Amino acid sequence: SVSSIVPESCLLIVVGLLVGGLIKGVGEKPPILKSDIFFLFLLPPIILDAGYFLPLRPFTENLGTILIFAVVGTLWNAFFLGGLMYAVCQLGGPGLNHIGLLANLLFGSIISAVDPVAVLAVFEEIHINELLHILVFGESLLNDAVTVVLYHLFEEFASFEQVTILDIILGFLSFFVVSLGGVLVGVIYGLIAAFTSRFTSHIRVIEPLFVFLYSYMAYLSAELFHLSGIMALIAAGVVMRPYVEANISHKSHTTIKYFLKMWSSVSETLIFIFLGVSTVAGHHYWNWTFVISTLFFCLIARVLGVLVLTWFINKFRIVKLTPKDQFIIAYGGLRGAIAFSLGYLLDYEHFSMRDMFLTAIITVIFFTVFVQGMTIRPLVDLLAVKKKQETKRSINEEIHTQFLDHLLTGIEDICGHYGHHHWKDKLNRFNKKYVKKCLIAGERSKEPQLIAFYHKMEMKQAIELVESGGIGKIPSAVSTVSIQNINPQTLPLERVLPALSKDKEEEIRKILRTNLQKTRQRLRSYNRHTLVADPYEEAWNQMLLRRQKARQLEQKMNNYLTVPAHKVDSPTMSRARIGSDPLAYEPKEDSENLPIITIDPASPQSPESVDLMSEEPKGCSGLPPSPEEDEEGLVMRVKEPSSPGTDDVFTPGGSDSPSNQRMLRCLSDPGPRPEPEEGEPFIPKGQ
């Protein structure tokens, strides 16, 4: 019940205080946490664990924000605190007057940096959301370069008789040398570790050893040249991990994972216990003015720095940092054992006030770890800050993540704006084309990221099944590859999926490779003119359109059409109709044909109902003309009903010919007039 309220780091410090008091009570001298032991043996495992398992995607997406907090924020804290403490020393009386500006700036640089050990210990217990965790933890990792530069800079300046402008410029440039030099050392050792793991397939036992050995060598090499050892370790872990995990066996991967966790946990425990013991054993000089001013100005500098920098950062961020986020970032700026060890390294010869500095540093550490560390959990619950959600990644999520990456890269290409998605894609292409072939053995160097992720999930699922005792009742959805990976002796030569044929599997892989991996492949763009249309769908659409047009035309013509309804005219009536416009039916000189007009009585109001279905001359059908037809001349016949399978509208006809248009003019009048009665003659008397 106590551990749910008090963080583990606080309990360990209390244990250290009790152990130190017990040792001192029996008359022995308690051991003190020496800086060499801390920096050479206790700190590297914690940093390597953090760097090797660093969540790379959120870290790179928020790298700009992290760097601003780590570099600008730490510089602001150091100079703001150092300047104010110098003013306090000048006004604080005879006990503080002898502390100069350089000594106060050095003290500010020691106490201003956020400690990664303390942040890890507290933030992993409250399960804060990933964004806030990576911002505070990333800041604590990357501000090491600033702390190292400022510490060595002011330590060197303290031994100078006079500091020139050139010294200040060189000190500013040394920041880039220390930070970038540490990263370069880490990258070199990471690549060497990845290359070495390519040839360890026959000696799997020593695979984890290479990871630890090269990482520790990167740290020592960086410290040897006064570069940032923490940044070297982070760079080595980040660079080597994807290539090493592709080469080593699953047992080696498990060994690395659990050994790093165990090693970092032991180091963290020892650090906090030694902090408690060293507090009891060390020499202290208590000055109320200096200690209280240090604590107060540390909090003020942190809050002001976060507020101002967040106001600036939010102008460029898409996902803005809310006031709640700013409060957690400011409140999570914990100090820890790095500050204590740097203070312990100070030389009495140049810094006679070393004991007072150590007392103030321990006070700030205890306040941040105990007060802020114990109250941050209830404050997170009170403010309803978003917690971390434990979710397992799926193939669906991986596909959509890659799809969005490629989509954003394409949008940047179209816009002509080369943002971080563009450069990330360039780096991925270079990695796939050159680096993977050199550092990964076998066919896995050519395997797409999605397939590799699928293999990893398969292995994880199979192991969970074995551990849960469900090997006898494996569901059909689980691929047999998982079972084969558990017993590699029975692994077949070819990978087989029970639910898919070999051709189908290759087709799926081809689709994934071509569409999800090659972002800038020139694919045929969508064009509605090049689409292959379905002929049945096209014909159906045409028929519907023609029917619709016919109905619209029928509605328009209803007001003007004066054709009698539902009545077949006699020959006399037909002659009278044609007599009203003889030119419309006057045969051409080169034509001997007389048209036979066929009228459709089904819809006499429609102008399309009159159609020239046949223009055969009489006597051309092979039969002699009857005497009645000779007398009648031009015969109007009823249109034959269409067959059941045809469509009147869809079937092409001669309705658009000039003769049809003349027939329409013949049958229509400019204005409406009353229709004749049944017994009434077509031509009125007297005309």
Describe the structure.
By secondary structure, this protein is mainly alpha-helical. Among the domains are: 382 residues, Na+/H+ antiporter like fold, CATH 1.20.1530.20; 62 residues, no CATH class. 63% of the residues lie in helices and 2% in strands. Strands 2-1-3 form a three-stranded mixed sheet, covered by helices on one side. About 13% of the residues have low confidence. This is Sodium/hydrogen exchanger. Keywords: Antiport, Calmodulin-binding, Cell membrane, Coiled coil, Glycoprotein, Ion transport, Lipoprotein, Membrane, Palmitate, Phosphoprotein, Sodium, Sodium transport, Transmembrane, Transmembrane helix, Transport, Ubl conjugation. It comes from Polioptila caerulea (Blue-grey gnatcatcher).
The side-by-side strand order for the widest beta sheet comes to: 2-1-3
How is the main sheet built?
Answer: 3 strands, mixed
- Helix percent band: 55-70%
Number of helices: 24
Strand content: under 5%
CATH class identity of one domain: Mainly Alpha
CATH topology of one domain: Na+/H+ antiporter like fold
Elements, N to C (H/E): HHHHHHHHHHHHHHHHHHHHHHEEHEH
Q: How much is the average pLDDT?
A: 77
Q: Round the Cα radius of gyration to an integer and report it.
A: 45 Å
What does the overall shape look like?
elongated
Distance between the termini: 119 Å
The CATH architecture classification of one domain is Up-down Bundle
Q: Please tally the β strands and state the result.
A: 3
| SS-based class | mainly alpha
Subcellular location: Basolateral cell membrane
Keywords: Antiport, Calmodulin-binding, Cell membrane, Coiled coil, Glycoprotein, Ion transport, Lipoprotein, Membrane, Palmitate, Phosphoprotein, Sodium, Sodium transport, Transmembrane, Transmembrane helix, Transport, Ubl conjugation
Family: Belongs to the monovalent cation:proton antiporter 1 (CPA1) transporter (TC 2.A.36) family.
InterPro entries: Cation/H_exchanger_CPA1, Cation/H_exchanger_TM, NaH_exchanger, NHE-1-like, NHE_CaM-bd
